[in-house]
Amino acid sequence: MFGLGWSEMVLVAIVALIVIGPKDLPGMFRTVGQLTGKARGMAREFSRAMESAADDSGIKDISSTLKAAANPQKFGVDKIREATGISPGPATRELTEQRAAKKAQMSNAMAKAATDRKTREAAAAEAIAPVTEKAPAAAKKTAAKKPAAKKPAAKKKPAAKPKGDA
Fold first, then answer.
1. Strand, helix or coil at 86?
2. 83 and 22 belong to one structural domain
3. What is the 3-state secondary structure (H, E, C) of 114-134?
4. Residue 103 sits in which domain range?
5. Cα dist from 101 to 104, 106, 114, whole Å
6. Does 33 share its domain with 64?
7. Are 79 and 128 in the same domain?
8. Which of 25, 55, 129, 165 has the most beta carbons within 10 angstroms of its beta carbon?
């Protein structure tokens, strides 16, 4: 609010503790808090008074008119139609019907393309299936041709020395 950092506030608190004393410090904080509350209340009351004065003078009506003028959907297109005398007529309805027909035509074409693609994928999967069934038999033949891996020989432990000969 005042541009004070934590280090400055700590310094002010230490100086206040030394100058005011630890006994009177809580009372001083209470008084500062009450003064701050009163100042905020006065500011709130002032802003409310300004808003009511603006309402009485009609500024809200002007601001709503300006907002409507800035919104092209509410102001621009409707005012242009009123000025030119154009209203949605049979030409607009005909255009809407043409758009609906084109949409239906595109939907049918996309559905046909999707079914054709699924048919091609199913045919390709059937063509691949016999090849994959033959593959495991070929893998068994190659596995049989590989020699078995040899295990390393176990290390022999040296014989124990007789205990009585030493």
1. coil
2. yes
3. HHHHHHHHHHHHHHHHHHHHH
4. 91-136
5. 5, 9, 20
6. yes
7. no
8. 25
Give the global pTM. 0.32
Residue with tokens 């009450």: 34
- Return per-residue pLDDT of the chain as tens, 166 residues: 567 788 998 898 899 889 988 899 889 889 989 999 999 999 999 999 988 887 787 777 777 777 776 766 665 666 677 777 666 666 666 778 888 889 999 999 999 999 999 999 999 888 887 655 555 555 555 555 555 556 666 566 666 666 655 4
Residue 20 lies in a domain: yes
C-alpha distances in Å from residue 7, one per residue of 3, 4, 11:
12, 8, 6
Give the up-direction half-sphere exposure of residue 57: CA atoms within 13 A in the CB hemisphere: 8
